[in-house]
Design a protein that fits this description.
The chain is an all-alpha fold. Helices cover 78% and strands 0% of the residues. It is built from six helices and no strands. The longest helix has 21 residues. It starts with a helix and ends with a helix. 14% of the residues are buried.
């Protein structure tokens, strides 16, 4: 029963990651990390294919092996979250902007303190 559930979740996260490739506000690699986690428990050969991907494989392997995030990825993610706060403020205003600000305040430092 677990294998089909993990496989389905892996496909869902692959889809979300694919959307993230096209939409700049949505992340890609975090969804691929979740997909690799699910595929490891359902179809390990699919997880290995993700870890060997020419573009995203290095980031996935860094996370799998050392729980590390590259400096460029750190700056990009914190920068995107910051732009998201500004965008939310300009479009939705107060108090909705507090949600984006809270995400930046909680997740930003966590991302920055990961090894490189």
């Amino acid at each position: 029963m677990k294998r089909p559930v993990f496989f389905s979740l892996g496909l869902l996260f692959i889809g979300a990651g694919a959307i993230g490739v096209v939409l700049p506000i949505m992340p890609t690699v975090p969804f691929l990390i979740l997909a690799a986690f699910c595929f490891t428990r359902s179809h390990p050969e699919w997880a290995e294919r993700l870890h060997n991907h020419p573009r995203y494989g290095a980031s996935l392997r860094d996370w799998r092996d050392r729980r590390a995030i590259g400096r460029k990825a750190k700056l990009s993610s914190i920068g995107a979250m910051s732009i998201g706060v500004i965008f939310t403020f300009l479009t939705l205003g107060f108090p909705i902007v507090l949600i984006s600000l809270a995400i930046l305040a909680i997740v930003g430092p966590w991302i920055w303190t990961r090894p490189e």
